[in-house]
Each structure stands twice: as C-alpha cells, then as structure tokens.
Amino acid sequence: MKINENYRSLRDSYLFSDIAHKVAAFSESHPDRRIYKMGIGDVTLPLAPAVVAAMEEAVREQGERATFRGYGPEQGYPFLRESIREYYRSFGAAVDADEIFVSDGAKSDLGNILDLFDPDNTVLIPDPVYPVYVDTNKMAGRKIIYCAATRENAFLPMPDTSVKADIIYICSPDNPTGAAYSIERLRAWVDYARERGAVILYDAAYESFVSEKGLARSVYEVEGAKECAIEFCSFSKTAGFTGTRCGYTVVPFALKRCGMSLHAMWLRRQTTKFNGVAYAVQRGAAAALSEEGLRQIRANLSVYRNNAKIICDALDTLGIWYTGGRNSPYVWLQCPGFTNSFAFFDYLLEKTGVVGTPGGGFGRNGEGYFRLTSFADETTVRGAMAAFSAAFG
Ligand code: MLT
Predict the structure, then answer these.
(1) C-alpha 254 to ligand 1 mean position (Å)
(2) Judging by beta carbons within 10 Å of its beta carbon (0-12, 13-18, 19+), is residue 53 exposed, middle or buried?
(3) pLDDT at residue number 13
(4) N or C: which end of the chain has fewer CB within 10 A?
(5) Same domain assignment for residues 33 and 75
(6) How far is the CA of 110 from the centre of ligand 1 (A)?
(7) Are residue 204 and residue 283 in the same domain, yes or no?
(8) Which residues bind substrate (predicted)?
(9) Is the CB of 305 inside a 6 Å radius of any atom of ligand 1?
C-alpha cells in the first residue's frame, strides 16, 4: 500500500484553519478581550427573505407525495441554470444554460476540475493567491510556476509570452488582493491561452462586488474566452450562501483539447463523483437571482461595500498603502512597521483584538501585506478600525 506522497509537500494545515485555531486559543486565554474577526472571508448577514421563502416552500414540496423529488437532473435543475444564464446576460456575457453545472461551491469545483488534466501539465498561478489553487495542484504532483503579483503591477500580473503554461489560474476580483482585471487586460490572458492551447481556470466568486465600469464580471465578456476558459462562481459571497452551499461552473461547448470536449469530460466526472445540490438549496439560489432576490442581496452587498469603505477611509487617514476594497470585499494593506505579516498578525491581535489574514499565507509576494475582509457587521468594522487607528495613528 502506498499513500499519495504529494501530501508531504503541503503545509501542515490549511491557512484559514490555522488562523481560526490561533484566534480560538487567544480568545480562551483572554476571555475579556474584544475580538474583531476580519480574517476569513465568511459572510455575516442572513439569507435574503426571498431565498428563505423559496427554500421553505421547497422543503414543504419535499414533504408531500405529489411534489416530492428524488435525484435531480445531473447538471442542476433547469430553473436554476436558466436563472444563472439570465444573470450572465444582464451584464453582457452569453452562456448557454446547458454549459452551466450547478455545484456545492467554487472551491470544490476548482479542485475537482483537475481530474480532467494530466498531472504532467505546467500550472501558472499568481503569487499571492488563494491557497486552494496551489494545494490542489500539489496534491496531484503537478509542476507549478508563479507569476508575480506586486505593488508595481497593481497586483494584476500580465502574461509573459516566454513562459510556457498549460493551466492558468485567474481570480478577479482577486482573493486576496482585491485587484480586478478590466475586460481589456483580461483579453491579453485569453489571447495568450488561445495561442498556447492552454486552459484558463477563472474564479469569479467575487464578481458581484465589481462596481466600476470596464472591469470584468466574467471571463466570457472577452471574445474567444469560450475556447479557452472554464469559469467558477458561487452564491457564497453574492447571496450569503457560505453555510447553505451552492455554486456553478461554466464549461463551454467550444472548449476542446486533444480532440476531447471538456464539457463532456466534466459531465462524465460530475455524474460519476458528485451527488448534486439539494433541491431546496437550488430553489433558494434561483430565488436569489429573481428580481426581488437581487434587490435584497444587493442591499446586503452594499453593507459589505460600506464596511470596505470604512476600512479604506481609516487607512487613508493613517497614510497606510492599500489596494482592493472598491470592487472587492478584501482590503490588502501594507503591514505598518512590519515586514513579516505573521508577526504583524500576532502583534495586531494582541494589541487591538483585530483579526486579519497575513499576506505571507497567500504566497511569497504576499509577505509584508495583510488582508482585512469587509464581511462583518458595521459595528465590528468601526470598532476594529478605531482600535487599529489608535495603535498606528
Ligand atoms: C477566504 O477567506 O479567502 C475565503 O474564505 C475563501 C473561501 O471562500 O474559501
């Protein structure tokens, strides 16, 4: 018997579990201290009333013989895939409902999609980056190369034609930096991928935070993207589904490699290994995209946007450099007075009770930076930034 030796190359634990443990230990040893949790990007506002009503109704249907449903359609219910197609259409991206696969969230699909690719491919990943892209490829023993996201390139690396990559990860608006590609800049990546026959794995989990015109909501706003890109998205951040679980992946019919349709391969993979998403959850997700649902979830998003502004305003006053926050729930700041982001994490927690995420946890280029999330209630954010300002003012 042999284990997967690639696991030896992983860090002992996942970044966010690490932080949760550190914070739990601090709370236990300092029971009287106020803690401001702005580390993990987990939503705090409840589900929209339209979502709750749709889920309640669906549960009732499941309790009646006449309306009970067993296994659902393989790619998700047509009512949800149609709603998602319409949602894409609302910002100018054309996807076919049959290109959409409903899932339990972007993270699982971003890992699972790797089943479609040979371990011998070279993977290009930005640094700093959401750790899942790196860890899932390490688990498969794939060769990883990095493209540097730095303050100099506004944390938006552009393709280097001298670099050979087969699989390319892009997250926009980005986790952790909050930087967002314009449609124009994204075009350069699509052209690069098409020229090389590479595949872009595009994580759009934070698209609903885009507020500036000209920034991409979807890779499919770029012409030709359907021949080279798979897009992953989720209701987690858009509609507060982190505890409810629903997402979707778009695998275009036009995406073919080595004579194989990636759509057909993904369908084959999902029907073999994935059980689908609960009917009631899919009803809730569809309700989030209804006219009423969209109005309600946008009201929630504006609370997070306002929180991001509170963070940015405080940093502006303190003269601390940052990016993100405008089109993203994440604010990415330079650690004031620290070069080691983990030391800054410890200092900040001890001194102010504010919890963020050390930039170094997202990669080498993240060192010296720190991520704060706006997924919190306004009182927490105001309290956190007051404590932060008192410490660094
Ligand atoms: C984060 O804090 O980066 C998020 O929790 C990522 C995720 O959704 O898994």
Answers:
(1) 30
(2) middle
(3) 80
(4) N
(5) no
(6) 13
(7) yes
(8) 14, 41, 107, 130, 175, 275, 371
(9) no
329 shares a domain with 251: no
Atom 4 of ligand 1 has which residue's CA nearest to it? 41
Work out the angle between the directed axes of helices 341-352 and 378-392 (0-180°, nearest 10).
Answer: 110
- Measured CA to CA in angstroms, residue 246 lies from 80, 106, 113, 275, 329 at distances of 11, 8, 16, 13, 19
Q: Of 245, 262, 292, which one is at a domain's C-terminal end? A: 292
| Cβ neighbours of 52 (radius 10 Å) | 14
- In 3-state terms, what secondary structure has residue 361? helix
Ligand 1 centre to CA of 82 (Å) is: 27
What's the number of domains the chain is made of?
2
Per the CB < 8 A criterion, the answer to whether 80 and 102 are in contact is: yes
> Atom 9, ligand 1: which residue's CA is nearest?
107
Q: Which residues are annotated as a binding site for pyridoxal 5'-phosphate?
A: 71, 106-107, 130, 175, 206, 234-236, 245, 275
What's the rounded Cα separation, in Å, for the pair 393 and 318? Answer: 6
Contact criterion met (CB below 8 Å) for 57 and 283: yes
Same domain, residue pair 277 and 309: no
Residue 377 phi/psi, 5-degree rounding, is -85, 160
| Atom 3 of ligand 1, nearest CA residue | 41
> Which residues in the chain come in under a pLDDT of 50?
none
CA distance 313 to 315: 5
Domain holding 334, by residue range, is: 5-46+298-392
Count of C-beta atoms within a 10 Å radius of residue 74? 12
Asked if 208 and 336 sit in the same domain, the reply is no
Q: What is the pTM of this model?
A: 0.97
Binding site residues for substrate, as ranges?
14, 41, 107, 130, 175, 275, 371
Ligand 1, atom 1: nearest CA belongs to which residue? 41
Q: Is the CB of 175 under 6 A from ligand 1?
A: yes
Is residue 237 within 8 A of residue 353, CB to CB? The reply is no
Token pair recorded at residue 144 = 């990883």
Last residue of a domain, one of 271, 292, 313: 292
Task: Specify whether 110 is located in the same domain as 146.
Answer: yes
